Amino acid sequence: MTKKKSRRPRATRKPRRSGARSYGKLPKDAATLVAILRPRDGQQIFLEAELRALIGPTRKEEGCLRYDLYRSAEGPAAFLLHEIWESRAHHAAHTKTDHFLRWNARKDSLITSREAGFWMQIA
Question: What is the pTM of this model?
């Protein structure tokens, strides 16, 4: 006689946090910010640490849909921040948070340049 294996109920998925939402159609007023930051000589490790410190608290903010950090795979050292916010107002609120203000006070000693701009999803 063979013994039947008992089936365990499938674990239900937890709802995703706002910073972990999947891509797809964005809210009508969504704002995507792309920023490229280049470190000063000898500051790459410190810049990366400061940028990583922003990730956790920023992803928990209201209106944050994505907040991802990338490091250049080629060429000179650079970091790219890809941010998606429900609206420009949500991004504006982000710039008044303690963690952002701390970053803003330190960034000039860590970077040589910053290119940033907002983008709108069209397809």
Answer: 0.78
